[in-house]
Fold this sequence. Notes:
This protein has 148 residues and is α+β, with helices and mostly antiparallel strands. It has helices spanning 19-32, 40-48, 96-109, 125-133, and strands spanning 10-13, 52-59, 62-74, 77-87, 115-118.
Amino acid sequence: MTTSSDISPVVGRLVELTPDAEADISRLLAQLTDEASADSARISEMLALSHCHLLVARAGERIVGMASVCIYTIPTGRRAWIEDVVVDARWRGRGIATRLVESAIDQARRVSPCTVMLTSRPSRVAANRLYRHMGFGSKETNVYKIEV
């Protein structure tokens, strides 16, 4: 019998939102934040955008990790924002988040030069350690939000 420890998840771009994928994404988002849930219309809209990529780590048919990256150009240069990096609690500690972030960075490299940005709450100690280990540095700035 194959166990989860025998499976090495494969990272790739999600191109179609199936009911199973939506359920897996919903489960992952619940582990990331209380502020968001999977919305099939919003996810389908994202999948249709050429400059946004929803990257997923699949173990067999299940999505066990995800990250999103959106790339855009502004007068001061090209940016890529990585968001929603989350790995299912049962699959953490296996390098999946690293592979997801590396895949997001690879998407940005295709349009380089590009500055890759991400945010992470200070309480996410392991995630912040990972990002620093991968070469990200903190930026002296504030991030604000407003719902419109």
